[in-house]
């Protein structure tokens, strides 16, 4: 009984936190549908019957995971703090300029793909190189001197890659 209750409480916390991270992503210009589009492009060659609705469903599963939520909360907060000037040098400039050798943004995003094993990692590498859809847009907007998308672009890529892996595990 106690264990059952603990489980229910955890599920409640996860879905409350899910709403918070989804809203945070939206405030940063990313809808789950945008992420599902990338997932679709990653997986349709392996699962031709795939639909965007199925992709969205798997993106939803990914953002229900607590490790994923924690990575989103952390990364987005750092981007926002950098934009507001609340991060000290030398880190602030590295974040605002999305310095190529900084690398911690990709490492944080690995916390998301790690949940889905090696297919997640392969997909993430591909997305990081190709920058499809919303990721390209975020990259361009992030070059604006007042905007910081250093963590956001990797987080979006990682969620898309994780959802693609979740689909692969189920259908491929
Ligand atoms: Mg980045």
Question: What features would you highlight for this structure?
Answer:
single chain; binds magnesium ion
Question: Can you characterise this structure?
Answer:
There is one protein chain. The chain is built from nine helices and no strands. It has 172 residues and is mainly alpha-helical. It has one domain (2-171): PgpA-like (YutG-like, Orthogonal Bundle), CATH 1.10.3760.10. The longest helix has 26 residues, at 2-27. It is globular, with a radius of gyration of 16 Å. The model has no long low-confidence stretch (mean pLDDT 95). It binds magnesium ion. Magnesium ion binds at residues 98, 105, 150, 153-154.
Which distinct ligands sit in these coordinates?
magnesium ion
Reading the helices and strands in chain order gives: HHHHHHHHH
Largest sheet: none
- Structural class, by secondary structure, is mainly alpha
Helix content: over 70%
CATH class: Mainly Alpha
Radius of gyration: 16 Å
Average pLDDT confidence is 95
CATH superfamily: PgpA-like
From the coordinates shown, what is the CATH architecture?
Orthogonal Bundle
Number of strands: 0
CATH topology, anyone? YutG-like
Please tally the helical runs, counting DSSP H or I stretches of 4 or more residues.
9
Shape, please?
globular
Could you list the spans in which at least 5 consecutive residues all have pLDDT below 50?
Answer: none
Domains counted in the coordinates: how many? 1
CA distance, first residue to last residue: 38 Å
Instruction: Report the β-strand fraction as a percent range.
Output: under 5%
